[in-house]
Design a protein that fits this description.
The complex is a heterodimer of chains A (289) and B (285).
Chain A (H helix, E strand, L loop, with lengths): L1 H40 L5 H5 L5 H10 L8 H31 L4 H15 L2 H16 L4 H26 L2 H9 L4 H12 L1 H16 L3 H4 L19 H10 L6 H30 L1
Helix pairs in contact in A: 1-13, 4-7, 4-10, 4-12, 5-7, 6-7, 7-10, 8-9, 10-13, 12-13
Chain B lengths: L1 H13 L1 H24 L1 H6 L3 E2 L6 E2 L2 H32 L4 H15 L2 H18 L9 H25 L3 H9 L4 H29 L3 H6 L17 H8 L5 H34 L1
Antiparallel strand pairs in B: 1-2
Classes of the chains: A mainly alpha (289), B mainly alpha (285).
């Protein structure tokens, strides 16, 4: 009896210890990744790294011969990411918000159920498949890789995320808010645009930030749509680069491997800042409602 | 009148999603058709040849289907010993404390790291370790890819399971405590049976994530087109073969790659569909 109890108490202690230790170990990769990227990347941060374009192999070899640091930077990628993100947001944000409003308005209809199911399907679709499909839709007919194709791919990836977050936020708004608007004689459209959407702003904004942070680091859907380009481009009908695409290029090019870390640190900084920011906003907004 | 217009506008914009989904399926099927017709559906799925010698092109998807299933299952296996303690830490042992909030923030941040950065970390940090341990000569292998994949899916598995663990009613747990059960026994005999189906479904959704992961696997799996003979050999997953070869492919090879994309799409859709269904059931209980 005494022995059995001791064994049970020991197992209990052991379980608790194991849970704490293994949980703590799970946090290790995050700090290992952050630490390594920061440590190796911070050296690369300089004015020219953000204002110059990817160097040619010839320029790199000359610099290596002369013993000077590798010239050039990731400006072409930054510009490409900004252009493509902007174009995809212009479509995905309004479409996502209206789509989410539709799902929240018509909760019980078959149509809404089908769309809701398909939103899940789209959200779960591997990004490389979105890349293939946009290649077939945009790159093949226009016969060129382009910023437009890249934005279409990013837009398709953002859309389900924004729809979901808008729908969820509208759902948790108190029903009395909508009812009092309707009781005052306002139309459904007025109630949606003047009352419900403004009240849901915090949640929707969080959703948009999360969606952006999700697609900003996507490489696979851009591989066969935007392709990448070592020149600075502001046109949307030609191949264009993006920061994650540059990381992939640096990874495959032994001469430019040094640049991986600077570009990764830059990307990681943006992604994680957006991520943390959106969670802070979500927290703040929740307290107020 | 205005209400009707409003409804129609919402409906039209919402049709975007069904159109895109329909378009994805339509495009994949029509462009994969050539490969299916040339090799036969069953033969394409079960053949292990992948060679693009002009005149004698042979494309079979089995090595890549195997690669995807192997990496995913191994990743799941490596992920459970870490994600399970995290979900118990957050959802049961330190429920509601600052410590739990910190841990779940840290684990959530793991989900935010882009997959290309996981790939780079795996390539420059984990791969040398695998080489030093003499597990695989080049360091790139199915095992290497699975280890990094496991880290990537921990947040997906643990945060959802923690939700289900949190929902276990207190009176159930308290009645077990009042009978003299220890904390570990309550977890094993009460929490797991009650939250079990929810936990199971969160792991299904985590599998859905791992199946389509592209960049990380491409950078770590070694990219060879033969059938993997062990977990330390190199290989290719469905997503990684597409990422590697799509840009240079045309004709029959392009069609074969799109066919692999279609197979991947169907598998992911099935896994995610089952996961979502199970979650709905678990919520109702």
């Amino acid at each position: 009896m005494e022995k059995g109890l001791k064994k049970r108490l020991f197992t209990n202690k052991l379980t608790t210890c194991l849970i704490v230790v293994l949980s703590a170990l799970t946090a290790v990769p995050l700090f290992a990744i952050l630490g390594q990227v920061f440590y190796k990347g911070i050296d690369q941060f300089s004015w020219s790294f953000f204002t110059e374009t990817t160097p040619s192999v010839y320029r790199v070899m000359k610099a290596v011969e002369a013993g000077s640091p590798i010239p050039g930077g990731i400006a072409n990628g930054i510009v490409g990411t900004v252009i493509m993100l902007f174009m995809s947001m212009v479509v995905a944000i309004p479409a996502g918000i209206l789509g989410g409003a539709f799902l929240a308005e018509n909760r019980k209809t078959t149509m809404a159920k089908v769309i809701s199911y398909l939103t899940d399907l789209l959200q779960g679709t591997p990004s490389v498949i979105i890349g293939i499909v946009v290649y077939l839709w945009v790159v093949v007919p226009t016969k060129t890789y382009s910023a437009v194709a890249g934005s279409v791919a990013l837009c398709i990836m953002m859309l389900p995320l924004i729809i979901r977050s808008t729908e969820e936020t509208l759902k948790i708004l108190p029903a009395s808010l909508k009812e009092s608007g309707l009781a005052l004689g306002a139309s459904r459209a007025t109630v949606m645009f003047k009352i419900q959407l403004p009240a849901a702003f915090g949640g929707i904004f969080t959703g948009v930030l999360l969606a952006v942070s999700r697609v900003i680091g996507e490489t696979a859907p851009l591989l066969f749509t935007a392709l990448g380009c070592s020149l600075m481009r502001y046109t949307i009908d030609q191949p264009i680069s993006a920061v994650p695409l540059l990381i992939w290029e640096f990874f495959n090019d032994p001469f430019l491997q040094e640049f991986i870390w600077g570009a990764s640190l830059f990307l990681l900084f943006f992604v994680l800042t957006l991520n943390v920011l959106s969670k802070q906003i979500a927290k703040k907004w929740k307290v107020q409602s | 009148m205005r209400d009707k217009l409003f409804h129609i506008i919402l409906l039209v914009v919402s049709m975007f999603v069904p159109l895109v989904c329909g378009g994805i399926i339509y495009s994949l099927v029509t462009d994969a058709y050539m490969a299916f017709e040339h090799f036969g559906l069953v033969n394409f799925l079960t053949s292990t040849d992948w060679s693009y010698t002009p005149g004698n092109e042979q494309y079979g998807a089995l090595p890549f289907i195997t690669g995807t299933l192997l990496t995913t299952l191994l990743a799941l296996l490596f992920c459970i010993p870490f994600s399970m303690p995290v979900s118990l830490f957050v959802g049961e042992y330190f429920k509601g404390t600052k410590l739990a909030a910190t841990l779940s923030t840290v684990v959530d941040l793991l989900a935010g790291i882009p997959s290309i950065i996981y790939g780079i970390w795996g390539f420059f940090t984990l791969r040398p370790i695998i080489m030093a341990l003499n597990i695989s000569p080049q360091g790139s292998s199915i095992l290497t890819a699975s280890l990094v994949l496991a880290i990537m899916i921990v947040p997906y598995a643990s945060s959802l399971s923690a939700e289900f663990i949190k929902m276990v009613p207190n009176d159930l747990k308290e009645s077990a405590y009042s009978l003299g059960a220890t904390h570990a026994e309550v977890v094993r005999k009460v929490v797991f049976p009650v939250a079990g189906s929810g936990i199971f479904s969160s792991y299904i959704l985590a599998i859905g994530r791992a199946l389509g992961e592209t960049m990380t696997v491409t950078m770590l799996i070694g990219n060879t087109n033969h059938m993997p003979h062990s977990i330390v050999s190199t290989g290719n997953s469905m997503a990684s073969v597409i990422a590697n070869q799509f840009g240079e492919a045309d004709g029959l090879r392009l069609s074969a790659l799109i066919a692999i994309g279609l197979v991947l799409f169907v598998i992911t859709a099935l896994v995610n569909g089952v996961g979502k269904l199970l979650i709905k059931r678990a919520r109702i209980d």
